């Protein structure tokens, strides 16, 4: 770990190759490899105070106040007590330190929870229970079913046939589909024999620690032989062992050196753009005070000792109460997020949570949203929505008049009680399909027979009737489960057979060949021999028919094969599969040859269910000019289809560019071609704006306007080239010209690199949202990180700044809470600077009359209480309760969000406007009372033009002026706001009369010298006339300016607020959008999401499970009992977590497959 605790790994010198020996700790310790302990916390007991103070003093205001404190402790130059600065400074530092400590304690608890997990480690020829943190490189450990993988391991042996293990990698890549790993035969023979494992002394040489999840190279030397190692033999930390009783592994990398931690990204100290702007403004103010100090020292009549106190007097320009108030406002707005019932997800009992209190206003300035797909946009649940068999479409529901009905949760579902093996969680609404099955329609039976046979799903049946499907892709699981419920139940498989139950009859098909899926063919087929001896090929291929509805679709076809032809083809297939040269192309040719002249059976439509409200949320965010980029580990076809179904990509777009080059030159050319298509006259120059921040010059890529709307889809290997230093600007410039961007097959580190690229060259605020450990680096890299508490654990939530349960809550977080927080903070800062600049500039004008001495124009008690009591609560009330329009109007007009992206509410320009307004107000507040008091007498003829009376009048005019100004700033009055404003004025008079009373003077004469000033001055009519005049003159320019602005150049806020006033009541909620689907001709609806190679794995026997228990047919026509029945199969609502889900079917038009020939075969 680094000293700051922010680096995942520290290396004394770069490791070029890893060497280790099994069961030899002494040998492995000589290389000083990292242990298996992890640390994500930032501080420890000794480093907390110095590091936290170092971080806090990066806020220039804190350093500024420390400088003033140093001046105040010097009696010769200070007229104010040192505790007036040290107390609030210590308070601010303490509150922030306490908050940071709380956050870090939570990180320590999380680390301790992980580090103290127990693992069985082979030590001294015995299995011992050890904490994860004590596991070392070279140890052999035992894992059991459903346990997390302790470290990056070399798989040695397992309980499964042929040393297979099944793992879930959701924490790494977001995919909950099971993956298969297989050990070397030589280590698999060790089994679970502790003696053999203890004698194992194999030596491993492999690559050094890195972040590549998809690659591993190394060798194992054992018993004089050298064996190659690849990624298929490695179990990575963060995976979960599934459906495997036990396995043994050799630790290769531990703790911070594991690939999971290498992808974790750095924890950064996040500050808002307003914080950074405040640093610049404080520097400007500090420079201004320095100039005034220089001016004061050059005055010939002013002793040099007076200039120091004068500078201290002017420190109220930026009082420390400003930062106390800012933290209170942020805390209050964070509570609003926590308390928002409209962001509460009742199904999981999950409220929204603001995990940080320092970034709320940044939520109102988001320009780029980077989102994961699986589990964030989608539910990771596949539902069997509809199908077409023999030209007839099933899945819709119609009334007696033939009108299509909308399917809801209350729509009647099909009764599958005739099938005792049906999955009760399967939901289907079209009764016509089950009737066709019962009537033994031959085409329908052939359709579901194909679904039960043509797949790579594994079945496990530990108890009679309890079937659990393990699918390498959730869409395959949904299709096999659909066949199961309609009477064609897949029960088990061997390398050369598939057993299914056909309408209660047990059938075993001989499996002769699997024509495996690959990215070029995009189909798979099986060749089987039926129990009657008939030879058939069943095929699943992609189809665009339902793709326009956002559904992943397959066309199903078959043909009978001639025995003699198949024998010849099988011989050629064997020769091609054993050929070392050009094996893949030869196999593809053979597959193409036999997959011809097929007879169409029908098509299926599987929906990768979006989370509720995702399309509407993306549409709303797009209207708010927020650009959404999807960064997913899923493959291109799947991500592209989801992009269309969630309205990210749209048919109305001029073009969607696909970047898939396999070389830097190809990628560069594709990016340039896309940019030329969008903007033919694009100029290479003038795409940067110079931007300087605190003396640092940075490049800012300008937004380029294009005619039309475009999308960009880029895959992982192309993105790797695009992110290289020489090409990153080409990629960013092209991507930023598009309305939507989808990056496919990206690693966790690439997600973070994309976010950092946008942060580096775009003057925009970024937000990253995800739900898995593979999103952590992206969440940490963005300005704002949002975690979704979904099906992939809590890693994303623990690393996030905000969390909730559903993607749809993002629009409320940004368009309501974010916009309100930003608006309130900007109003607060404008008003706070106004009231304090005005307060301080009155001192400046008075200095010309007092020789720039340390004498103050106000009573010292007024100076102390001005920010603490008299003006604190009104501005806090405005900053906690104010809103220009309510949440309904915010959703109806998402364009209200745009001013925040452009920093229109508070910027350097707004700050200097505020300063000019303050100069004017201070002139009025000083000279009007001065002229009114000059040579003035009371009603009784006594002189009233004394210092104390003038001070009282000036401070009273000031308080009335800033209170009226606050009233103009406020647009949403509540009882609390009204009480704070009027109560503060009442408090001022109560405190003033008390402080200036005879009693207080008699108690402490030196502390309360203004005896009788209040009652002697405030009973004079001319004093109140002066207060009225100054108040009117202070607010008159504001009223005039705002009137002219609204009339001549109204903002979007002005227009919407005018509509609100016209409505005179809360408008009705917006009408529900009709979900419109369009048929796409530009993308594939291909439903396979699994990887190449599973067919070979099935037929080789390496995929075998244990023999299933004996079974009965499981069918009855009387009805089925569910006593003692706990089905484990996954329904058409196929969820990798096995949770109960109800399928919702969207409105779609009835379709047909007229482009295919439909042939009835009486032999079916």
UniProtKB/TrEMBL annotation:
NCBIfam families: ATPase-Plipid (TIGR01652), ATPase_P-type (TIGR01494). It is a multi-pass membrane protein. GO terms for biological process: Golgi organization; phospholipid translocation. It comes from Larimichthys crocea. GO terms for cellular component: plasma membrane; trans-Golgi network. This is Phospholipid-transporting ATPase. Residues 21-86 form the P-type ATPase N-terminal domain. Gene3D superfamilies: Calcium-transporting ATPase, cytoplasmic domain N, Calcium-transporting ATPase, cytoplasmic transduction domain A, HAD superfamily/HAD-like. The chain crosses the membrane at residues 80-98, 277-296, 308-326, 828-849, 861-881, 910-930, 950-968, 980-1003, 1023-1045. It is found in: Endomembrane system; Membrane. Its cofactor is Mg(2+).
């Amino acid at each position: 770990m680094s000293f700051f605790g922010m680096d995942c790994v520290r290396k004394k010198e770069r490791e070029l190759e890893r060497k280790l020996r099994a069961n030899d700790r002494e040998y492995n310790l000589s290389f000083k490899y990292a242990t298996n302990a992890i640390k994500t916390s930032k501080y420890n007991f000794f480093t907390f105070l110095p590091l936290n103070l170092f971080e806090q003093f990066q806020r220039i205001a804190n350093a500024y106040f420390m400088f003033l404190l140093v001046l105040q402790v010097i009696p010769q130059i200070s007229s104010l007590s040192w505790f007036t600065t040290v107390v609030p400074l210590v308070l601010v530092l303490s509150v922030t330190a306490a908050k940071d400590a709380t956050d870090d304690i939570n990180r320590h608890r999380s680390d301790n929870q992980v580090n103290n997990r127990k693992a069985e480690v082979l030590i001294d020829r015995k299995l011992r229970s050890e904490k994860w943190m004590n596991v070392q490189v070279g140890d052999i450990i035992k894992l059991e079913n459903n346990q997390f993988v302790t470290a990056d391991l070399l798989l040695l042996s397992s309980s499964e046939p042929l040393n297979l293990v099944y793992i879930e990698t959701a924490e790494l890549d977001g995919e909950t589909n099971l993956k298969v790993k297989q050990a070397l035969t030589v280590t698999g023979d060790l089994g679970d024999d502790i003696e053999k494992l203890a004698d194992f002394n194999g030596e491993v040489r492999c690559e050094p620690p890195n972040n590549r999840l998809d690659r591993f190279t190394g060798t194992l030397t054992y018993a004089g032989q050298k064996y190659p190692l690849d990624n298929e033999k490695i179990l990575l930390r963060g995976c979960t062992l599934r459906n495997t009783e036990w396995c043994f592994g050799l630790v290769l990398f531990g703790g911070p050196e594991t690939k999971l931690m290498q992808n974790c990204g750095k924890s950064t100290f996040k500050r808002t753009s307003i914080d950074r702007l405040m640093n610049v403004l404080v520097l400007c103010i500090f420079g201004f005070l320095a100039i005034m100090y220089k001016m004061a020292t050059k005055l010939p009549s002013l002793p040099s000792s007076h200039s120091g106190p004068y500078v201290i007097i002017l420190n109220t320009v930026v009082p420390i109460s400003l930062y106390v108030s800012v933290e209170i406002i942020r805390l209050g707005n964070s509570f609003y997020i926590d308390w928002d019932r409209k962001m509460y997800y009742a199904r999981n009992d999950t409220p929204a949570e603001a995990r940080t209190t320092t970034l709320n206003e940044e939520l109102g300035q988001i320009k780029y949203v980077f989102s994961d797909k699986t589990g964030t946009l989608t539910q990771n649940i596949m539902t069997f929505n509809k199908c077409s068999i023999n030209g007839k479409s099933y899945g819709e529901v119609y009334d007696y008049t033939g009108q299509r009905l909308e399917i809801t949760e209350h729509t009647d579902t099909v009764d599958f009680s005739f099938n005792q093996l049906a999955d009760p969680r399967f939901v289907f609404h079209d009764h016509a399909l089950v009737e066709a099955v019962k009537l033994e329609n031959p085409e329908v039976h052939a359709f579901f027979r194909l679904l039960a046979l043509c797949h790579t799903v594994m079945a496990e049946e530990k108890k009679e009737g309890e079937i659990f499907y393990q699918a390498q892709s959730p869409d395959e699981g949904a299709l096999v489960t659909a066949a199961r419920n309609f009477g064609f139940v897949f029960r088990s498989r061997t390398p050369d057979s598939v057993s299914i139950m056909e309408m209660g009859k047990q059938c075993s098909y001989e499996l002769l060949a699997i024509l495996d899926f690959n990215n070029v063919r995009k189909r798979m087929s099986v060749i089987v021999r039926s129990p009657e001896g008939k030879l058939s090929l069943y095929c699943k291929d992609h189809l665009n028919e339902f793709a326009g509805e956002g559904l992943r679709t397959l066309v199903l076809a078959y043909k009978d094969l001639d025995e003699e032809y198949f024998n010849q083809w099988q011989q050629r297939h064997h020769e091609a599969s054993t050929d070392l040269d050009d094996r893949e192309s030869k196999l593809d040719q053979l597959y193409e040859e036999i997959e011809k002249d097929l007879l169409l059976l029908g098509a299926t439509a599987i929906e990768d269910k979006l989370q509720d409200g995702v399309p509407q949320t993306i549409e709303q965010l797009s209207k708010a000019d927020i650009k959404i980029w999807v960064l997913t580990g899923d493959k291109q076809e799947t991500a592209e289809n989801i992009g269309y179904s969630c309205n990210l990509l749209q048919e109305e777009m001029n073009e969607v560019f696909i970047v898939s080059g396999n070389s830097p030159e190809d990628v560069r050319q594709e990016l340039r071609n896309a940019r030329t298509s969008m903007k033919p006259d694009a100029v290479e120059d003038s795409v940067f704006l110079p931007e300087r921040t605190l003396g640092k010059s940075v490049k800012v890529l300008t937004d380029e306007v294009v005619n039309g709307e475009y999308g960009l889809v880029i895959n992982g290997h192309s993105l790797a080239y695009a992110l290289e230093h020489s090409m990153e600007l080409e990629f960013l410039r092209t991507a930023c010209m598009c309305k939507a961007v989808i990056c496919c097959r990206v690693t966790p580190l690439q997600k973070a690199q994309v976010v950092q690229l946008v942060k580096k060259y775009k003057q925009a605020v970024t937000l990253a949202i995800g739900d898995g450990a593979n999103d952590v680096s992206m969440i940490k890299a963005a300005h704002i990180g949002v975690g979704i508490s979904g099906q992939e654990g809590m890693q994303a939530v623990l690393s996030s700044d905000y969390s909730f349960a559903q993607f749809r809550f993002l629009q409320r977080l940004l368009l309501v809470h974010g916009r309100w927080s930003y608006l309130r903070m900007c109003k607060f800062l404008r008003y706070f600077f106004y009231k304090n600049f005005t307060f301080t500039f009155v001192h400046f004008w008075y200095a010309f009359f007092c020789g720039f001495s340390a004498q103050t124009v106000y009573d010292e008690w007024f100076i102390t209480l001005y920010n603490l009591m008299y003006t604190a609560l009104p501005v806090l009330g405005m900053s906690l309760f104010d809103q220009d329009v309510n949440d309904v109007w915010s959703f109806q007009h998402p364009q209200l969000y745009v001013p925040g992206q452009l920093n229109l509410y508070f910027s350097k320009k707004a700050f200097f406007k505020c300063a000019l307004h303050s100069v004017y107000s201070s002139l009025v507040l000083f000279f009007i009372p001065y002229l009114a008091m000059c040579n003035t007498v009371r009603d009784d003829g006594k002189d009233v033009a004394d210092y104390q009376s003038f001070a009282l009048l000036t401070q009273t005019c000031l308080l009335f002026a800033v209170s009226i100004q606050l009233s103009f700033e406020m647009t949403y009055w509540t009882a609390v706001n009204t009480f704070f404003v009027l109560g503060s004025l009442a408090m001022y008079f109560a405190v003033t009369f008390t402080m200036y009373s005879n009693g207080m003077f008699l108690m402490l004469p030196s502390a309360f010298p203004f005896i009788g000033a209040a009652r002697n001055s405030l009973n004079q009519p001319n004093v109140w006339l002066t207060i009225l005049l100054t108040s009117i003159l202070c607010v008159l320019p504001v009223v005039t300016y705002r009137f002219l602005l609204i009339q001549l150049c109204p903002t979007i806020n002005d227009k919407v607020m005018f509509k609100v006033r016209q409505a005179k009541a809360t408008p009705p909620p917006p009408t529900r959008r009709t979900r419109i689907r369009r048929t796409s001709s530009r993308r594939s609806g291909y439903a396979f999401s699994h990887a190449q190679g599973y067919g070979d794995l099935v037929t080789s026997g390496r995929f075998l499970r244990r023999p299933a228990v004996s079974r009965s047919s499981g069918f009855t026509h009387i009805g089925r009992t569910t006593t003692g029945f706990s089905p484990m199969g996954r329904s058409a609502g196929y969820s990798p977590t096995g949770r109960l889900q109800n399928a919702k079917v969207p409105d779609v038009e009835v379709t047909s497959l007229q482009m295919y020939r439909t042939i009835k075969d009486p032999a079916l």
